[in-house]
Amino acid sequence: MRIGELSRRTGVNAHQLRYYEAQGLLEADRGANGYREYDESAVLRVKQIRHLLGAGLSSEDIAYLLPCAVGEAPTLPGCPELLAAMRSRLRRLDDQMARLARSRDALTDYIEAAERTSAETYPPLDDPDLAAVPA
């Protein structure tokens, strides 16, 4: 099948499919006309890639894990190398989440400080003292 059909069958645009190919996640043969030709297994492969991307894995992680993937969801065997790779990715995600939480807390503090300053400088519009001020 050509890239357009693979795109329709998986819901993944052709640009992303070419990216997956460039990353070594998806293989295509070239027809005599130069067009990419995918076999039927490409549909399952793309679905596996999408699920693994949804788990926060990088294309590098996926390239490592994909040869062991079974099924659409996919299931991955619990061999030590794969577990180590997934645990490493989980630690990176935990670190990113901790950094985001710190950033969120700092931003919340800035907003609260700005709102306090704003309330002192600019009284609320429903303030009765402002009702007497001509427009």
From TrEMBL:
It holds the Pfam family MerR_1. SMART domains: HTH_MERR. SUPFAM superfamilies: Putative DNA-binding domain. InterPro entries: DNA-bd_dom_put_sf, MerR-type_HTH_dom, MerR_fam. Keywords: DNA-binding, Repressor, Transcription, Transcription regulation. Residues 1-68 form the HTH merR-type domain. The keyword Cell inner membrane does not apply. This is MerR family transcriptional regulator.
